[in-house]
């Protein structure tokens, strides 16, 4: 394929300037151009930092041969005088699909496809390291022209399809040469992404966490394959190994995925170059800590059309902020010394690139940093330091000639030289005749306006207030101007001709009047009027004041992250969730994030005193079953997804974190959904609003995994085609996996042992090193799972939902499993027909550890009410009921030594309530996690006022922008999905 | 505390000593009943601490302070000292009895195909023996408006009580309201047509409103004619124009609500009720001026927008009330049927976020009855009204207090047992016996 393409290139480009020396030639004699071209008197930007004023440089056969203040001019030289002009290295774009046809989408089929469609390759079609850009590449001169105009000389291109996308190639955008000359490196890099291949319908992975798990497994498998352990041929793994030492470029489309990519890379000792989202400023410290080089799009959101206030109400604060803040992204990256290159991907290089770049400069990006991002940094990133992106001896002769400072709006790009080949963008010799003139012909004075590019000007002519038809052409500095006769009743023309060799304020020439009479005309330049200035101002998106970034950068984010405080809660009614019960008039002292003393009359010792008289202090609520703060819930592509972990997809920007804090929740178990019998691993989080995803993870908590039984896993409520379809099959899935898990463990010492992330998790479960929380409804399946576990010698830790737990509570007690249930949900599916609100009370009475959970972002913020329902349904005591949302879920999660009650030495996860916490009238006033007050009713009311003010300001800015004529986009409200585990589709 | 509850449980078990799958409806009230000593929450904002409540033939004949009279207590006397009496709670805009199990299509009868369906009537599909309906009663929810869903005009609702053999016995007001799903000014992309699922401006909004307006005009014209041809949808509009069928408009947006007010004027509609009304607060003055009440969606919801106050749904009913709008709470939404029994706690939550408790009670009693047009008989404990009430151990708006010992509908003492209490008994007994072994 590659060879064929090169041959094709040869036929198309037989007239190349640099034809290959060993190629036969049949259309004439062999002639090689060995002349030098020498440029003199230019302001030369040697690289992003250094400038040579009035310098000289020479090029020959595509390379720069010398650069200096003064060089010897060889005799066989053509000398070009660049007096008053500037020279820059041509730009480099590392993230393009230049010259690659759009990947063809697989045809729709019936139902999901679970197996790979390719044979001889990896088991998953979305791992395509065997793809080679070179095999699909053909030079796209139309696109190249756009890139030339933007100033680019070299691009790296790839096939944008799949999770591992195979090799990219580095290609010069040299016009009129053969592919053989243009290709600088046909295996320059390997590309990756979070997007599945469109060429395959294979289901797995359906989620971001599945993608990450797949990538990890593929790396492990490649290593195993490299050791010669496979019996089969796997061309994908071979390619992955072959590409291992290339630059790895990981494409992402949102900030969280940037961190996720980096995390996978770190685990395998790979530093990806990350294609960012343009939102890096929102978490710049983490971006910096990734140590990655970034490739950043030059795309800024358009202002929203907020003229209709009803529609404006749909806009989220973060979208409004992104519009306001994004243009400063590059400045922030640069100030924080994050190395970055720029890409034209996702914008039109011809129309938008320079405009957006200048906008970034206007917003504080230094010219030096901008130039580095287009030249030296991408060159270094792709391993071509000193060869590309610089003007120095030995480098490719890739450079731009401009009329002045590239970063000034008025500057014209004249020529883009690539590999020593000239591409004229605007003729250097064209006289700029644009402007306003008084045009005198035959006793009439017309008003003449010439605008547009100097080489293709446009005219606007008036006589008094009457518009006169006109047409101008300007070639080789000869102007031909055709005017309609001022007598509009006639179809007659006046023709003007003039030679204008240099910029001037007056020019004159010959005019031929409608009657054939020849006369002279004269044009005299006018001072530009106020109106012109005003016109010019129009359509410019003026620099606006940037609003502060908050953590997270959404409504109710913190401008300054609240800090740990030493606090003395004075004179509270303290619900200990311990044997000590409820203590009246009691003080609780918090120091360094821990509860250090519980008693009466405690001295503050410098701690902040909070008067809690008449108020109730409790441990923070723990929600054993939550799906908030997640970018994905289900990996449903396989019937087991033990390899995936919710820790990979924590979304710290979810407003439900803040709302949960406002409901007194401090810790949650973020569970995988219930799409498959063996789900994914959990993330146990502390709701530290404003912190990063990783910092929310409750580190001391032991590992968990979600299992699921019943209607969801057997795909009862939609048409499914995956095993199992019955509860009988569900049992077999477990038995099969556990048997294989045991066998896997026993094979560890075998020579060709293959590390399998899914099986590693199963082994942890079998060995009691990872606890199981199983979604369950009816008694038969509950019993089944306990029996299967017992057969394999381990215990189920928790049944969640467990709506028929009351029917088998005795058996559960015998097994030693806990229960985490809803207070009163039922009737939504057939399997909850016998669900009763007395369930928790009965199980508690039998002696199980029982928790009340939410599985719902709404209910989770009032779990105190849900716990109180057990007082109504089943007559549980209030103390016992309160334990069901504090110490009991802590026990189920094995974090009860750390949190879940008020006792000396425990983590200070506390809630101060205005009322009895089980009362319907109770609301949290302060919620503290690890000694930091993350929710405070007073601060909340201040934030509300601030948000109103900020929205108002941003709407004002957008209205102003629209008024100035900038492009706007219609308001669209992004759907926020409230997730619970019955939800199967993937969310952000 | 625990022992008290044990007594309550035992008491409950005795009262509900009945083991049919569905509870047998109670017969007509046979002699007078006197409830004495309870704190009576009248539902109209008033409280009588030590009350005397007497009812006969289904009607309240005395609701007074017990210390003000020395009269003989007639009939069956219930000493309710330390307890609380409430009028039966009312669930408007409900689909109870129309769906049994959400995921089982065969049990779902709430949404007929078609757009303009005033002739579709919820009442005839209402399953008086639904296990979900009976589960309302132990929480004090005794009445409901049964409403069809879907389409532009979903159909006609009826109001029922929750202790009946069949729909005919259950109905207390037939064909009380017409239900319109107002077009959305913005709408979700139709993902099934490959559009983005996000919300954006609905280009067809004006056209949708016009279609609705045209339908009203066409119905009116038809009804003014000789009606030789029996056009069922148009005929079902007759009571709308005569003022006998209220018009319930399910709508949330500010602009849309203003358009509804205009629609009311245009078609000279006497009674219009806003259902949902998420952004009604911004147009509260106009609603008040035009006598349009609001059935606010359940407070146990999350705010529509991240930037909104976290407690906005909690306090919306109160804010509307403070602005002078007549407000009640409805409970539609996800898992709405089984959740309707939580309507007292919806009211309690509104009280937690600023409303006076007795005003909060009105949101599920007298205000609801007024809005539904059944306040002559229901919604408050007042002489001459139906004896539809219950006795609770404590504050019925609080989970811990909402424990019923007696409940009456039209003076009939109804069973408080349900499929769920029976399972509770059955399995509690299983473990008690195990312990005894």
How would you characterize this protein structure?
The complex is a heterodimer of chains A (988) and B (437). With 988 residues, chain A is of the alpha/beta class. Chain A is elongated and about 115 Å long. With 437 residues, chain B is an alpha/beta fold. Chain B has 14 helices and 20 strands. In chain B, the strands form four sheets. In chain B, strands 8-9-10-11-14-15-16-17 form an eight-stranded mixed sheet, sandwiched between helices. Chain B has a six-stranded mixed sheet with strand order 3-2-7-18-19-20. Chain B starts with a helix and ends with a helix. The interface between A and B is large, with 73 and 63 residues. Chain A: InterPro entries: Amidohydro-rel, Amidohydro_3, Metal-dep_hydrolase_composite, Metal_Hydrolase, Metallo-dep_Hydrolase. Chain A: Residues 1-19 form the signal peptide. Chain A: It comes from Christiangramia sabulilitoris.
In short:
Chain A: Keywords: Hydrolase, Signal. The complex is a heterodimer of chains A (988) and B (437). With 988 residues, chain A is of the alpha/beta class.
Strand order across the largest sheet of chain A: 21-20-19-18-26-25-24-23-22
- Please list the strands of the largest sheet of chain B in the order they lie side by side: 8-9-10-11-14-15-16-17
Main sheet properties of chain B: 8 strands, mixed
Largest interface, chains and sizes? A-B, 73 and 63 residues
The CATH superfamily name of the domain at 621-899 in chain A is Metal-dependent hydrolases
**Count of discrete structural domains of chain B:** 2
The CATH superfamily of the largest domain in chain B is identified as Metal-dependent hydrolases
The CATH architecture of the domain at 621-899 in chain A can be named as Alpha-Beta Barrel
Number of separate helices of chain A: 26
Please state the average pLDDT score of chain A.
92
**Structural class by secondary-structure content of chain A:** alpha/beta
Keywords (chain B): Hydrolase, Signal
InterPro entries (chain B): Amidohydro-rel, Metal-dep_hydrolase_composite, Metal_Hydrolase, Metallo-dep_Hydrolase
Signal peptide (chain B): 1-21
Organism (chain B): Christiangramia sabulilitoris
């Amino acid at each position: 394929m590659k060879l064929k393409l090169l041959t094709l290139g040869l036929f198309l480009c037989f007239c190349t300037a640099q034809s290959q020396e060993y190629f036969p030639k049949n259309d004439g004699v062999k002639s090689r151009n060995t002349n030098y071209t020498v440029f003199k008197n230019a302001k030369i930007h040697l690289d992003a930092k250094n400038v040579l004023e009035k310098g000289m440089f020479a090029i020959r056969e595509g390379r720069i041969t010398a650069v200096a203040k003064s060089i010897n001019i060889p005799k066989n030289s053509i000398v070009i005088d660049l007096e008053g002009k500037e020279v820059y290295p041509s730009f480099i774009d590392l993230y393009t699909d230049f010259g690659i046809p759009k990947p063809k989408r697989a045809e729709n089929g019936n139902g999901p496809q679970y197996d790979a469609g390719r044979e001889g390759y990896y088991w998953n079609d979305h791992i395509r390291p065997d793809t080679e850009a070179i095999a699909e590449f053909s030079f796209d001169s139309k696109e190249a022209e756009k890139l030339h105009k933007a100033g680019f000389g070299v691009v790296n291109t790839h096939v944008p399809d799949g999770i591992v996308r195979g090799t990219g190639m580095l290609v010069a955008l040299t016009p009129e040469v053969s592919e053989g000359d243009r290709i600088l490196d046909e295996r320059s890099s390997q590309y990756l992404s979070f997007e599945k291949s469109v060429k395959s319908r294979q289901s797995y992975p359906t989620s971001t966490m599945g993608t990450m798990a797949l990538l990890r497994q593929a790396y492990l498998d490649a290593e195993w394959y490299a050791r010669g352990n496979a019996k089969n041929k796997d061309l994908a793994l071979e390619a992955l190994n072959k590409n291992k030492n290339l630059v790895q470029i990981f494409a992402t489309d949102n900030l969280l995925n940037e961190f996720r990519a980096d995390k996978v890379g770190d685990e395998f000792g790979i530093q990806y170059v990350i294609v960012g989202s343009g939102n890096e400023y929102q978490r710049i410290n983490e971006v910096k800590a990734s140590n990655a080089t970034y490739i950043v799009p030059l795309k800024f959101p358009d202002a929203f059309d907020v003229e209709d206030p009803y529609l404006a109400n749909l806009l989220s604060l973060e979208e409004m902020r992104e519009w306001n803040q994004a243009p400063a992204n590059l400045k922030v990256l640069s100030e924080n010394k994050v190395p970055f290159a720029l890409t034209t991907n996702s914008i039109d290089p011809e129309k938008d690139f320079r405009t957006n770049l200048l906008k970034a400069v206007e917003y504080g990006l230094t010219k030096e940093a901008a130039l580095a991002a287009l030249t030296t940094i991408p060159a270094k990133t792709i391993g071509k330091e000193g060869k590309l992106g610089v003007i120095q001896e030995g480098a490719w002769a890739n450079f731009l000639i401009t009329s002045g400072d590239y970063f000034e709006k008025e500057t014209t790009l004249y020529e883009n030289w690539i590999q020593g080949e000239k591409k004229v963008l605007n003729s250097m010799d064209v006289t700029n005749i644009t402007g306003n003139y008084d045009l005198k012909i035959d006793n009439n004075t017309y008003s003449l306006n010439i605008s547009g590019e100097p080489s293709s000007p446009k005219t606007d002519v008036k006589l008094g207030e009457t518009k006169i038809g006109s047409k101008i052409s300007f070639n080789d500095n000869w102007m031909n101007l055709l005017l309609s006769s001022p007598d509009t009743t006639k179809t007659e023309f006046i023709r003007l001709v003039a030679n204008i060799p240099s910029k001037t304020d007056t020019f004159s020439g010959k005019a031929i009047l409608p009657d054939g009479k020849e006369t002279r005309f004269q044009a005299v330049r006018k001072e530009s009027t106020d109106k012109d200035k005003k016109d010019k101002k129009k359509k410019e998106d003026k620099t606006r004041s940037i609003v502060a970034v908050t953590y997270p950068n959404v409504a109710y984010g913190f401008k300054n992250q609240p800090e740990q405080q030493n606090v003395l809660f004075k004179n509270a009614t303290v619900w200990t969730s311990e044997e000590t019960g409820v203590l009246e008039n009691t003080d609780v002292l918090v120091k360094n994030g821990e509860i250090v003393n519980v008693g009466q009359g405690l001295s503050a010792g410098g701690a902040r005193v909070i008067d809690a008289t008449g108020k109730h202090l409790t441990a923070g609520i723990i929600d054993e079953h939550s799906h908030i703060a997640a970018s994905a819930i289900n990996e449903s592509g396989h019937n087991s997804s033990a390899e995936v972990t919710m820790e990979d997809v924590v979304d710290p920007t979810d407003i439900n974190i803040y709302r949960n804090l406002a409901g007194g929740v401090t810790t949650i178990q973020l569970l995988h959904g219930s799409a498959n019998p063996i789900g994914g691993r959990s993330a146990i989080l502390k709701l530290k609003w404003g912190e990063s995803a990783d910092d929310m993870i409750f580190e001391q908590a032991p590992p968990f995994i979600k299992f699921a039984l019943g209607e969801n896993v057997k795909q009862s409520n939609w048409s499914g085609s995956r095993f199992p379809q019955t509860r009988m099959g569900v049992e077999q899935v477990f038995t099969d996996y556990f048997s294989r898990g045991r066998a896997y463990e026993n094979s560890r010492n075998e020579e060709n042992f293959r590390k399998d992330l899914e099986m590693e998790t199963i082994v942890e479960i079998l060995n009691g090193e990872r606890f199981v929380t199983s979604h369950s409804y009816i008694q038969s399946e509950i019993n089944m799972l306990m029996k299967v576990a017992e057969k394999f010698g381990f215990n189920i830790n928790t049944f969640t939902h467990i709506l028929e737990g009351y029917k088998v509570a005795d058996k559960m007690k015998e097994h030693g499993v806990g229960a985490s249930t809803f207070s009163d949900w039922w009737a939504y599916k057939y399997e909850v027909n016998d669900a009763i609100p007395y369930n928790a009370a009965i199980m508690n009475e039998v002696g199980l550890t029982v928790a009340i959970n939410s599985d719902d972002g709404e209910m989770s913020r009032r779990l105190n009410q849900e716990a109180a329902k057990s007082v109504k349904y089943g007559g549980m005591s209030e103390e016992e009921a309160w334990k069901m949302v504090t110490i009991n879920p802590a026990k189920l999660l094995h974090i009860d030594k750390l949190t879940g009650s008020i006792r000396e030495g425990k983590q200070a996860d506390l809630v101060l309530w205005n009322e009895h916490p089980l009362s319907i009238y109770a609301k949290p006033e302060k919620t503290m996690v690890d000694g930091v007050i993350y929710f405070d009713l007073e601060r909340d009311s201040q934030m509300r006022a601030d948000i109103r003010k900020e929205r108002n300001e941003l709407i004002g800015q957008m209205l102003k922008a629209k008024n100035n004529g900038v492009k706007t986009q219609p308001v669209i409200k992004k759907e926020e999905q409230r997730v619970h585990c019955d939800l199967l589709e993937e969310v952000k | 505390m625990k022992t008290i509850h044990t007594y309550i449980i035992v008491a409950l078990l005795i009262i509900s000593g009945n083991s049919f799958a569905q509870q047998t409806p109670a017969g007509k009230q046979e002699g007078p009943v006197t409830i004495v000593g309870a704190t009576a929450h009248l539902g109209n904002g008033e409280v009588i601490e030590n009350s005397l409540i007497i009812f006969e033939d289904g009607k309240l004949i005395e609701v007074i302070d017990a210390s003000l009279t020395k009269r003989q207590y007639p009939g069956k006397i219930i000493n309710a000292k330390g307890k609380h009496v409430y009028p039966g709670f009312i669930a408007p805009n409900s689909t109870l009895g129309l769906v049994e199990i959400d995921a089982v299509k065969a049990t779902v009868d709430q949404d007929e195909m078609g757009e303009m369906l005033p002739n579709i009537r919820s009442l005839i599909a209402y399953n008086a023996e639904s296990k979900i309906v009976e589960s309302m009663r132990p929480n004090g929810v005794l009445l409901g408006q049964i409403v069809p869903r879907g389409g532009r005009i979903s159909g006609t609702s009826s109001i029922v009580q929750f202790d009946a053999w069949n729909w005919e016995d259950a109905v207390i007001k037939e064909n009380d309201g017409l239900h319109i799903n107002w077009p959305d000014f913005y709408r979700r992309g139709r993902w099934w047509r490959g559009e983005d699922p996000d919300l954006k401006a609905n280009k067809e909004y004006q056209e949708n409103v016009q279609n609705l307006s045209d339908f009203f005009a066409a119905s009116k014209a038809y009804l003014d004619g000789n009606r030789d041809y029996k056009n069922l949808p148009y005929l079902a509009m007759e009571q709308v124009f005569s003022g006998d069928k209220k018009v319930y408009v399910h709508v949330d947006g500010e602009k849309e609500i203003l358009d509804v007010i205009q629609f009311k004027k245009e078609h000279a509609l006497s009674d219009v009720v806003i259902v949902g009304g998420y952004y009604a607060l911004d147009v509260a003055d106009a609603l008040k001026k035009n006598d349009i009440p609001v059935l606010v969606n359940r407070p146990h919801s999350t705010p529509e927008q991240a930037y909104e106050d976290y407690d906005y749904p909690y306090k919306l009913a109160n804010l509307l009330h403070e602005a002078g709008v007549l407000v009640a709470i409805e409970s539609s939404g996800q898992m709405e049927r089984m959740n309707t029994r939580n309507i007292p706690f919806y009211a309690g939550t509104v009280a937690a976020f600023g409303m006076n408790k007795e005003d909060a009670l009105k949101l599920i009693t007298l205000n609801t009855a007024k809005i539904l047009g059944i306040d002559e008989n229901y919604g408050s404990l007042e002489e001459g009204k139906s004896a539809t009430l219950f006795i609770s151990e404590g504050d019925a708006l609080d989970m811990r207090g909402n424990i019923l010992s007696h409940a009456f509908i039209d003076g009939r003492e109804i069973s408080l047992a349900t499929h769920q209490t029976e399972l509770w008994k059955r399995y509690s007994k299983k473990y008690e016996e195990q312990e005894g072994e």
